[in-house]
Write a structure and sequence with these properties.
This protein is mostly helical and 318 residues long. Helices cover 61% and strands 6% of the residues. It folds into 2 domains: 13-260, no CATH class; 282-317. The chain has helices spanning 23-45, 52-75, 78-81, 100-118, 122-140, 142-147, 178-200, 206-225, 238-260, 282-292, 296-317; strands at 13-16, 19-22, 161-163, 173-175, 232-233, 236-237. The strands form 3 sheets. Strands 1-2 form a two-stranded antiparallel ribbon. It has a two-stranded antiparallel sheet with strand order 3-4. Helix 2 runs antiparallel to helix 4. It is globular.
């Protein structure tokens, strides 16, 4: 008999007066706002303009949603295109089903388009929004709680998740809340990136790469605990292999980037000096130039002194 458990909501739909709002969509929306808000603060601290993060997010977010849904539908095609299934369900994003791998890949493509239009280096933008993305994932995972999905093996631990209805036909009971494990892990990843960025002045995409590597490390063991239907390769779930591959690529990027381009970008946005430049960039050069340049009064005084000297010399000679 369980001493305690996490109850599942009786309904996955919230009502704002007469307007229905699905809990899954609500969590995604809140996560996006948090990511943009934190990303904007970090972008300004790096020397960028307020509002730039939101402007680029207009491109990144729709691309990310499309990519996340495509990855889910492609890797779990049997849920939509096998016998007895309705392919129209592939478009019902509000019922859950976003693959983070596709969301990040397509979101990066959208961000690249937005950055290119503004003349902004994508790696600098990625560094600014990295912790916000992790927080957004932490919030978004609670959408799985509303949908009673993505849980692990049966357990009677005090923090077990009570499942009252299941799309995969499992009996009601208490299971490992893998959505909660991933949510907490993502909070830890966000805090790690913020700390490491302050401590080591990460730049040129390394803060984002650290977020990717840290997330993949946690996703591997959390994915291993899940028991929902998934494709397996050599005994491991497909997402386990994806996590391993992406982790190795992120670590490789950090190592090579640190050797090739140490420090941070001096300027992250055209026309704005870097707020935290580490290698003595344009802003520092301008300040130094202003300090060394003589003022108009000094030039005038020096000229008058020279005239006086010449006058005195002439009087002496005459």
């Amino acid at each position: 008999m369980e001493l305690a458990y996490i109850p599942s909501p009786s309904s996955g739909v919230l009502y704002l007066g007469p307007v229905p709002l699905r809990g899954y969509a609500f969590c995604i929306i809140i996560g996006v706002f948090v990511a943009v808000w934190l990303g904007n603060k970090r972008w300004i601290a790096r020397g960028g303009r307020a509002g730039t993060v939101a402007d680029i997010a207009v491109w990144a977010v729709p691309f990310g949603l499309i990519g996340g849904r495509l990855y889910h539908v492609i890797t779990d095609y049997q849920l939509y295109f096998s016998e007895g299934r309705d392919w129209v369900d592939a478009f019902k994003i509000w019922e859950g089903g976003l693959g983070i791998w596709g969301a990040i890949a397509f979101g990066a493509l959208g961000a690249w388009i937005g950055c290119r239009r503004r003349g902004i280096p994508l790696p600098a933008y990625a560094d600014a929004i990295a912790p916000g993305i992790a927080f957004a994932q932490a919030i978004g995972r609670w959408g799985n709680w509303f949908n009673q999905e993505l849980y692990g093996r049966a357990t009677d631990l005090p923090w077990a998740l009570e499942i009252t209805s299941s799309a995969d036909g499992r009996e009601p009971g208490t299971y490992h809340p893998t959505f909660l494990y991933e949510s907490l892990w993502c909070v830890g990843v966000a805090l790690l990136v913020i700390w490491a960025d302050r401590r080591f002045k990460l730049g040129h995409g390394r803060a984002f790469a650290l977020y990717v590597a840290a997330y993949c490390a946690g996703r591997f063991w959390i994915e291993y605990m899940r028991v929902d239907e998934a494709h397996h390769v050599l005994g491991l779930r497909l997402n386990n292999w994806t996590a391993v591959l992406v982790f190795l690529l992120a670590v490789l990027y950090i190592v090579l980037s640190a050797r090739k381009r140490p420090g941070r970008e001096d300027v992250v946005e055209p026309g704005v000096s870097g707020g935290e430049a580490t290698s003595g960039g344009e802003g520092e050069a301008v300040e130094k130039g202003e300090e060394d340049a003589p003022s108009e009064k000094e030039e005038s005084s020096e000229a008058e002194a020279e005239d006086s000297k010449d006058g005195a010399g002439s009087a002496k000679k005459s």
